[in-house]
Amino acid sequence: MEQRRHDRPQENGPRVVLGVSGGIAAYKACELLRRLTESGHETRVVPTASALRFVGEATFSALSGNPVSTDVWESVHEVPHVRIGQGADLVVVAPATADILAKAAHGLADDLLTNTLLTARCPVVFAPAMHTEMWEHPATQENVATLRRRGCLVIEPAVGRLTGADTGKGRFPEPDAVFEVCRGVLARGTAEERADLAGRHVVVSAGGTREPLDPVRFLGNRSSGKQGFALARTAVARGARVTLVAANSELPAPAGVDVVRVGTAVQLREAVVEAAADADAVVMAAAVADFRPAVYAEGKIKKRKDAEPEPLALVRNPDILAELSTDRARAGQIVVGFAAETDDVLANGRAKLARKRCDLLVVNEVGESKTFGAEENEAVVLGADGSETPVPRGPKEALSDRVWDLVALRFP
Fold it and tell me: SUPFAM superfamilies recorded for this chain (predicted)?
């Protein structure tokens, strides 16, 4: 007789409560639930009554493999309004409507989800979804500030298509991106460690700039932007407000991150300098071109049969890292640079650190098959105080977390 194989979450995995409130984005919670269960998280869904008008109880139960808790009056002998929150390693509310944010901020407890939020002593993540006007309303913004001040992680909503023909900020982030935030939060230690960037604004640059030669060609580099995007994701998981200036990267925007898309070094400088005006830290992970063509050809440069191409004249691009380090936008701002080297890695890194006058410099060896586009990285983080912190090869998120550890230690 053929045996049937059941792919079930691993026993004793992290216990997650997925709260679902009543917005049209409730259907996206199903994909988040699938990601949680398939990665070994024991997940229990606690929807509001209005959420069940968008997605049925049977769907949540089938995807989680657990009964769905909906009412404080169910299984009263188990005291669900207390026990569910007490036993969780993480509570994530996705989507979080303006209503649930208001109730959580003011400690209201009129259903099972709001009771669970009051009893939870684990990390709490909210992934808001609502119309732009509702998100920007002063009442909602005060509620978000209150929740963040208490240590909750409220992800910034995405910008894009809303219900109907409306477009703006308030869109539910992609479920995969919310899952990565949850995974990052669970990977942290104590509450203090989890939220050590709470209340901070950090700016991260990522990707590689492209300097156009003509309407068809450009000078560029191999940077994929993966390290910069990992820095942005891990900063969000640690409570920061993040602005990501991304140069020519096709990676999806991380959940909770304000992304500014740019192309050239000059454009990247303008965006970073503007964002850095109120930033506590700036991390320059982008591969910025040192030079650009002196002349831009309005038409495509033609190949001539009997003549060699004209020599390409180059001019220097602005030194963004040196500028940020020399002219700090605010007192106590931390500036971090990256040095991609192919030989004499540490010697060149120390020289660059002295030249650029930044606080930290992440030095790594690069090449055609090293670092660029890879999922892993290794580096040595040099400090202006003479420190050296080796980071062994591992996921780019691991290097990112180590960088933020060192940044957090240097905040005044």
Answer: CoaB-like, Homo-oligomeric flavin-containing Cys decarboxylases, HFCD
